[in-house]
Structures are given as structure tokens and as C-alpha cells.
Amino acid sequence: MKVASLPSLRVEPALREAAESVLQDGETISALMETAVRDLVHRRQVRAEFLRRGIESLEEYRHTGVSIPAEAVHDALQRRLDARRKELLG
Prior knowledge:
The structure is a single chain. The chain is an all-alpha fold. The chain has helices at 13-21, 29-64, 70-89. It has one domain (14-19, 27-89). Helix content is 72%, strand content 0%. The radius of gyration is 22 Å and the shape is elongated.
């Protein structure tokens, strides 16, 4: 697998010291930075998908005039949560 490099990152010494202070055994600053970038990229992708679905839902509502009341959605989610809790906790 080919690899690519990210640009080097200049930070204040205090930030580097803080980063070094939270490294896990055997972890490097580079590994910490890679993990942080991966996590941020993932969060932004999830957020973009959430917004896309929300906009799509709004457009569907505008087109059809059909919507589901928030209370019905909350009730359905609560039932799913209760069922999952019961499954996990017995």
C-alpha cells in the first residue's frame, strides 16, 4: 500500500508537551496525530451525511406534505432503546 504524507505541523511548545503527556505506551506523536485526523475526518463525514439526509427529508416533506410528528419518532426511539437495554441487561 502506498502512503502519503501530511504537512508538518508547527505548534506552540505547550501543545506539544500536552500531546506528549497523554501518549499511551509505545504511541508516538505521529500516531496520535494520525488518529486525531482520522477521527476528525470521520466526524465531519458523519455530520455531512446527517445534514444531507436532513435536507433530503425536508425536500421530501415540501414535495409531499407528509411528515411524522416528533413525538412519534421519540416514542419509537424510546421503544428501540428499551428493547436493546432489556436485551443487554436481561
